[in-house]
């Protein structure tokens, strides 16, 4: 308001909304229109290809982390089962569960469960080590 009172000239902005508006109306030469359209198509295609590449890298990284967790859980399950069979064979089934290999295996199972929850948390699903993921994707890219 203060600046407006100091200005001698008044400025107005006139805006017209047209349903049939196209930026091509304001390009003078047809060659320029074709170049701009071609460039726009090329950029859109490149962006779409990058999005597909990023999505595949994210999916591969998540799959790799899940495979590591599954193998770790399978190993722990095998150790727990062998501990149970040893405990039942030695007749110590009534022994305190806070001692021996079963307690250690149970602690590891709990640790893996927490690791799986952390890995599958929504905030971590798309988190990745970009260098390793890109190298892995380059090695496993279909030819």
From TrEMBL:
<feature type="region of interest" description="Disordered">
    <location>
        <begin position="87"/>
        <end position="108"/>
    </location>
</feature>
<feature type="compositionally biased region" description="Low complexity">
    <location>
        <begin position="87"/>
        <end position="107"/>
    </location>
</feature>
<protein>
    <submittedName>
        <fullName>Uncharacterized protein</fullName>
    </submittedName>
</protein>
